[in-house]
Amino acid sequence: MATLLSPAADKPVLTPLAAQILDTLVHRIGKDEKAARPHDWLAATIFTVRNDIIEKWMDSTREAHAKGAKRVYYLSLEFLIGRLLRDALSNLNQTHDIAGALKSLGVDLATIEEIEPDAALGNGGLGRLAACFMESLASLDLPAYGYGIRYVNGMFRQRIDDGFQVELPENWLQYGNPWEFERRESAYFIGFGGEVVGTETGHVHWKAAEGVEATAVDTPMVGWRGKRVNTLRLWTARAFDPIKLDQFNAGDFEGALAGQTRAETLTRVLYPNDSTAAGQELRLRQEYFFSSASIQDIVRRHIQYTGDIRTLPDKAAIQLNDTHPAVAVAELMRLLVDFHDLGFDEAWDITRATFGYTNHTLLPEALESWPLPLFERLLPRHMQLVYAINAKLLREAKAKGVDDRAIAAISLIAEGGERRVRMANLAFAGSHSINGVAALHTDLMKKTVFADLHALYPDRINNKTNGITPRRWLQQANPGLTALIREAIGDDFLDDAEKLSALDPFADDAGFRSRFASVKRANKVALAQHLKELMGIRIDPDAMYDVQIKRIHEYKRQLLNIVETVALYDQIRSHPERDWVPRVKLFGGKAASSYHNAKLIIKLANDVARRINADPAIGGLLKVAFVPNYNVSLAEKIIPAADLSEQISTAGMEASGTGNMKFALNGALTIGTLDGANVEIRDRVGDDNIVIFGLTADEVAEQRARGYDPRAAIDASPELSQALSGIASGVFSPDDPDRYKGLVGGLYDGDWFMLAADFDAYAAAQRQVDARWQNHEGWNAAAIRNVARVGWFSSDRTIREYAKDIWGVL
Ligand SMILES: *Cc1c(COP(=O)(O)O)cnc(C)c1O
């Protein structure tokens, strides 16, 4: 929308939209055009867009109410949302209008989009899944609420200092958050501690020793084409009595405010912990705090609309994203039994009919369990209910002739050593559906963690392979590719990602392949520019961009990639005459602050990068970069520019992965193991369009059972031996030659993640990738086939499956 010039005043006449933004700037932010800084323009733009959203939001709520629709409640301790402005504009089809209006005011939309902070209320895949699900729920026009915690400090910001990770608080609320609506009227009491007493009426009453108030803060979640706007409701903790006036007046200012500080601590930080259960009491408090507030809110809404608690499962489907909210099972039981006077058995039937549970990990160290004394001290009434549920469960098992070993395995209480409450078993027992997140993972769930519960309840476990929203991960992140696809096959795929299949024949069209290559190259140029500004590194857009970005974890095997990089470096130096493919190896990801080896792997990537990038002998054939502070916004920049996607976890250990889907959708080829959703990606793109290597999950289990000998595997591979001895002897760490002795020694001594067992297969697969890259036409054809064949991994498909099979809302 161009600015119109009024002949009379010779002053620009603004379009109504531009006038609205300006009016918001003045009256809401309190700045004029001259004083406004970029953040003020960002806020004014968001407030303007928000007005439109609010109307749709209220319509959505009214409509669900009028229809008496069943609602989906997604409980997750993490929502890794990223930025929202571009998402909202794109889904509302307002990008063009807002960009024009801002331009007439002298403001560049892209510039202010870039300064919106990432809402990083999650660690990695699990939290991002919750965010993709919220978008798909709204896009499919399903009434849904997300429930979580409004952390003041979400995921830490990662800085790399001299190659080491440094964790800094991410102050995402620094400039306020124009997306959120505080609902002071939706507040609940959350108790902790105290005792359970009987009352004269024969009821049981929990007298909590302390309590905080949970207050709702709502963010609108806009669906594709603005069809529906759902609510993400995040809880914030406050003291009931924010200030003790008598103490304050007596001069004890700190003491007077201590309660407020203590309450606020509850929702201050996200545990920067991707897979291992945090043992801290604060974590259990967080879990109960948000579960209780959410369940109270759901029950309150249900009673308000229907007046009959018994119909809860007809009107509410509650999905537990991993075990973090599993205590919600006991909380609902408490409300049904203690406040709604239901008998235990009836309450239990209602509870099970209402809950579904999604499992995200098989790693034993990541299966949450709480020391029983802690659980009992913090939640005495819930402890009683857990015992009662357990008694019922074990009686049922006994009646079916289950033996003592299996009884011990399905019990909600782990005996032997320190007694602990097993949250996965509680979530399983309290749910009518238990799902894994990829076919292989679901299969392994039945055979491992839940083998005995599965034998007892064979109909409960089901698979729901993860997905990603194509709006954020294709349309918004990769506008160039989106435009090219529209030109080729029209717009159908925008509403149904599986329609991307129409692109398949274009893989054989040389003209299309060439346009596809130009789009990829433009994305690579843009990334190169960004990385130059971000970290001062120069990377060549004509080299292969080989990318591994994800949380740093030994099972994800960044170390395998780094060691192979070192081996390749050795090879290039030994055989400079060979026809090497120029590669840029990009790494990115955060390590949990207490995870020593993961942090050492980050340092190693940086040490290797420094040495290789400074070596004139390899003539720029190999560049390595560790990109700091991997988050959603960085992923949106890197993934469209990737040629090769590294998905190389030890088979059987990655539940699904979703990064793998994002890369394939953006036309990168995968090099990967048969793990998680890689298996299903291979099934869809076809063997010829993916590079698979290494042990299968069965083979990993078999080797471990047989007694795997990593030393023998290392000795059998000259390339691996040479790379490891270089690393261990300090070639990459001359300032501290012993830095990696322990890390490499761990491979010789145990190598739980089977790096040595898979090394040669991985290196061979990489040379196969090189050969494929030399054939540019073949590479591009395979990349196009990836885009055309992974529409099934849209989170719309995943959510449709949940809606039909688990929630009963489709
Ligand atoms: C998609 C995504 C993940 C998950 O990546 P995986 O490779 O599946 O582990 C983690 N973090 C961010 C920021 C993401 O966007």
Automatic annotation (TrEMBL):
Signal peptide: none annotated. Pfam families: Phosphorylase. Its EC number is 2.4.1.1. Keywords: Carbohydrate metabolism, Glycosyltransferase, Pyridoxal phosphate, Transferase. The keyword Transferase applies. It catalyses: [(1->4)-alpha-D-glucosyl](n) + phosphate = [(1->4)-alpha-D-glucosyl](n-1) + alpha-D-glucose 1-phosphate. It is an enzyme of class 2 (transferase). InterPro entries: Glycg_phsphrylas, Glyco_trans_35, Pyridoxal_P_attach_site. Its cofactor is pyridoxal 5'-phosphate. Transmembrane segments: none annotated. PANTHER family: GLYCOGEN PHOSPHORYLASE (PTHR11468), GLYCOGEN PHOSPHORYLASE, LIVER FORM (PTHR11468:SF3). Allosteric enzyme that catalyzes the rate-limiting step in glycogen catabolism, the phosphorolytic cleavage of glycogen to produce glucose-1-phosphate, and plays a central role in maintaining cellular and organismal glucose homeostasis. Belongs to the glycogen phosphorylase family. This is Alpha-1,4 glucan phosphorylase.
